[in-house]
Amino acid sequence: MGAGHAHKLYRHGHSPVHALPPHTKIAAVLAFVVVVVSTPREAMWAFAVYAGLLALVAHTARVPAGFLLKRLLIEVPFVAFAVLLPFVAEGERIDVLGLSLSVNGLWGAWNVLAKGTLGVAASVLLASTTELRELLLGLQRLRLPPLLVQIASFMVRYGDVITDELRRMRIARESRGFEARGVRHWGVLAKSAGALFIRSYERGERVHLAMVSRGYAGSMPVIDEVTASRAQWSYASLLPGAALAVCLLGWIL
């Protein structure tokens, strides 16, 4: 996978969560999300317990609450959708502060907000404690199709390259006195986007030819073999295991 690649979601640390092998964390988060989604929406107390479990993980990983909450803003579009559900859903209606709201819509909004927020929070914690390169190695270890892992790897590697190319093009436009102020400037921006696409395509061809000349035959060599002990798997399974117990109680009670 080559050299490490830091990302904005990652928070460097030396906590027990950071030290876990990446594939154990990916599996734990996936299992946790599946359990959360399987929990009946009526068991509101269960979602509070899930939030407490994630807070405990964040505390163990030394991820500040502000860092986590700021990155939860990515779910704002889903929050807007959930807010609209009580107004547009059909079925039994109830008056709340003079507004006629759908009972099914209220439950649906709660379901989306609770499960969506917990899922995003778990994903943010995973990204906060695992570098992108380690995530790719973890996916490879979990037997994700190699082609998908390679595509993700190239996206990570060259995302910043393309962004930097776009920045240089913007600086070049501004150094020539260009400033986008209205619709009449869209043509220039469209030409810049086209030039960026052509440059990116050509760069991709050159990279592929360089790889083929070095013996690439459809698979990337595994440089680091990531393994996990039974104790590490047990430690990673604490979160989904506790969540599963809460889920079962939610269905029983």
UniProtKB/TrEMBL annotation:
Domain of life of the organism in this record? Bacteria
Q: Which CDD domains match?
A: EcfT
Q: Which Pfam families match?
A: CbiQ
From the Swiss-Prot or TrEMBL record, state where the protein is found. Cell membrane
Establish whether keyword Nucleotide-binding is in the entry. Answer: no
Residue intervals passing through the bilayer: 43-60, 72-89, 109-127, 233-252
What membrane topology does this protein have? Multi-pass membrane protein
> Major location, coarse class?
membrane
What range does the record give for the signal peptide?
A: none
Q: Which UniProt keywords apply?
A: Cell membrane, Membrane, Transmembrane, Transmembrane helix
NCBIfam families this protein is in? Answer: ECF_T_CbiQ
Q: What is this protein called?
A: Cobalt ECF transporter T component CbiQ
- Highest classification ranks of the organism: Bacteria, Bacillati, Actinomycetota, Actinomycetes, Kitasatosporales
